[in-house]
Amino acid sequence: MILVTVMYPAGAQTKFDTDYYLQKHMPLVRERWAQHGLKSAQVLRGAAKPDGSAADYQMMALLTFGSLDDFKAAGKAHGKEIFADIPNFTNAQAVVQINDILS
Question: How does strand 95-100 pair with strand 2-9?
């Protein structure tokens, strides 16, 4: 299993439409990618750092797939559609990291 972390940086110049993200984008992700091995999708909003300063990332999606091959298949099948939707909710450049789930 792998965890794909999609992180949207916070910043004074970034916009993020949380309602659109939760009501339109994430359901699109779940619908399109479930058939390609998406096991779960969790959304987190950055609240703060331990010292109370602003979080580095305003929003994160944690996407669990059965395997890296599943993630690649999902991207190949529907990646263009998913990524074309991003400007509808943010002008931030997402940071994506693929993680192996160890426990």
Answer: antiparallel
Where does residue 43 fall: left (phi above 0), alpha (psi -120 to 50 degrees), or beta otherwise? beta
CATH number of 2-100: 3.30.70.100
Helix residue spans in 1-103 (DSSP H): 18-20, 26-34, 68-85
Q: Which two tokens stand for residue 73?
A: 């298949």
**What is the pTM for the complete model shown?**
0.93
> Length of the chain, please?
103
For residue 15 the two structure tokens come to 């916009």
Q: How far is CA 23 from CA 20, 27, 102, in A?
A: 5, 7, 31
Question: Whose structure tokens read 């479930």?
Answer: 34
State pLDDT tens for residues 31-48.
Answer: 999 999 999 999 999 999
Structure tokens at 55: 């979080």
